[in-house]
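FIELD: query
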Amino acid sequence: MQLTGHITADSLMSLEAYTKWRKVHKPDVIAHRKLRSVRLGEHINLQFESETTIRYQIQEMLRIEKVFEEEGIQQEIEAYAPLVPDGHNWKATMMIEYPDVNERKRELARLIGVEDRMFVEVEGYARVYAIADEDLDRENDVKTSAVHFVRFEFTPPMRAAVQAGAAVKIGCDHTHYPAHVQVSPEALASLAGDLK
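FIELD: result
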């Protein structure tokens, strides 16, 4: 899988080529995804996306759905490519995870607005709150969704601080889910690569 900085139909593999590539490289992509996953408390998982994770997602969707026509390929690119960070932000898939169905239903009702209360705090700078669900509204008056897409925008000094090794916390200050965690050095090294 060649990273080009811009996902286009021409930069994707054919279904045949991807199937061969996948047999060898799937464990590498899973390890990359795991490295960029940050658990916040017991029930929120933030999967920070990259060109690698999104290319893999697009290729997987094309493989599973056996899409090989230009129009279908373009639709998958348009659906997923906006999740690739563009040099001044981090983008993540936020999953709210409650294994028990009844508990999940109850908690999703209590957590309305949680996606807007997610933050990144770079050492020495004010918190940056998530811009959530730009593609479509994922909550209603009764409950929030179990999956959200969030973006954290950084100023140039914040980007420089992260690249220079500043500590970073990720957190949530929602009334019903107060939590924060220090990002591990290994995850932070990978995430710093998303910032230019």
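FIELD: remark
The CA atoms of residues 40 and 151 lie 16 Å apart.
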